[in-house]
Design a protein that fits this description.
single chain; HIT family, subunit A; six-stranded antiparallel β-sheet; 8 helices; about 15% strand; globular; binds adenosine monophosphate; HIT-like; HIT-like_sf
């Protein structure tokens, strides 16, 4: 089957790395606008703003952003350790408040599409109509997702976050893992339609548009 993709949200292209594209008004700066959007903002304190992810990939999906403008993981240093620990703490509190039943992960995409460092707080049901592509799935279920704890540990040990960008890109292209039922809470039971599409995907190795 021919590859079929729709651009339902910013950052769907692997070419869209933050950096040169981050011009004034560019979509990759959208998180900054969302930090001030009362519809999306959940909470704020002296260090961070918490917003709902505009295209949630699970029942609970939030982003925690510092007020301080930090473009990406490469810009982080030991000076940011108190901030990163605070972000993680706020994430854990938010997860506990959101659901006692669901598991959560807290972390960063190795090569984010959106500018301004942000930590994902995401429940592991992946029960969302916005989760449409292999890239979405792989970005939250492979090593492309860097756990906050590991990011903090790396900075404590070496003073920086090392990201192998070419390997990260490959992780998004890798075939979907077959044992996703084991790694994900109730994936098959809550998402039968998507689960079926994943099976098709495993056969064809094509990009599927799950919105159809
Ligand atoms: P990433 O940059 O790969 O860490 O992911 C960016 C996240 O931001 C994705 O989960 C998107 O669904 C989400 N997103 C994209 N645009 C916006 C926006 N304007 N406001 C809030 N969330 C957004």
């Amino acid at each position: 089957m021919a590859a079929k993709r729709k651009l339902h949200e910013p950052g769907n292209s692997s070419k869209n790395n933050v950096g040169p594209l981050a011009k004034k008004g560019h979509w990759s700066l959208g998180l900054k606008a969302s930090m001030d959007d009362p519809e999306l903002r959940v909470d704020r304190d002296e260090m961070v703003v918490i917003i709902k992810d505009k295209y949630p990939k699970a029942r609970f999906h939030f982003l925690i952003l510092p007020h301080e403008s930090i473009p990406n993981l490469k810009a982080l240093s030991r000076d940011h350790l108190p901030l990163l620990k605070h972000i993680e703490k706020r994430g854990v509190e938010l997860a506990e408040k959101s659901s006692k039943a669901l598991k959560f992960r807290f972390g960063y995409h190795a090569v984010p599409s959106m500018s301004h460092v942000h930590m994902h707080v995401i429940s592991q049901d992946f029960d969302s109509p916005c989760l449409k592509t292999k890239k979405h799935w792989n970005s939250f279920t492979t090593d492309y997702f860097l756990d906050s704890k590991d990011v903090i540990e790396q900075i404590e040990q070496s003073g920086k976050v090392a990201v192998d960008q070419s390997n990260a890109g490959q992780l998004l292209k890798n075939p979907l893992v077959k044992d996703f039922c084991q790694s994900t809470l109730h994936w098959c039971s809550v998402q039968p339609h998507v689960s079926q599409l994943f099976e098709q995907h495993l056969v064809s190795q094509e990009h599927f548009d799950f919105s159809v």
